[in-house]
Amino acid sequence: MPDPRAAGPGEAEFGNSDPESVARTILLQRLTRSAATRSQLAELLARRGVPTEPAERVLDRFCEVGLINDGRFAAEWVESRHAGRGLARRALAHELRAKGVDQEMIEAALDDLDPEVERATARRLAAQRLRSLQGQPTEVQRRRLAGFLARKGYSAGLVYEVVGSVIVEEATEQV
After folding, report:
1. Which member of 46, 82, 122, 130 has the greatest number of CB atoms within 10 A?
2. What angle do CA 97, 42, 88 make, to 5 degrees?
3. Separation in Å, CA 56 to CA 1, 41, 72, 99, 123
4. pTM, two decimal places
């Protein structure tokens, strides 16, 4: 009996099965947990030892039937990560590029993010963070808020505008 550790990951796990069947099984198992991009799934198949040609055929088929849809993935990612973590366009685009989403799909997903909603989110985040900075000198508050929003991917202009207005609003409320 051959040693299963000597075979590649896909071979050891699935024996002499048809590579396309193996690829379908791997993809279906992965997609039942959460959505993923075509690039992420292709990488998974490669790691699991599925040959390139059968993997591409199965990936193409999954795209045809809508099980893999990078455009939908990108739109849902933008909505979720902006609402949940307050990430700005730049940070969202960076994350989507890292997941292998095409630039056109990234731009289309980001077009759905209204600049006014992004501005309101930045203001909300800054106001929340400012509460934890009470008692600090204004310059420390300004610097920490700016760094916080910059790490979320907000542009320098928007950061400057939001931080300034949030600090002024807080100062006028305390008077």
Report:
1. 122
2. 20
3. 31, 10, 20, 18, 45
4. 0.81
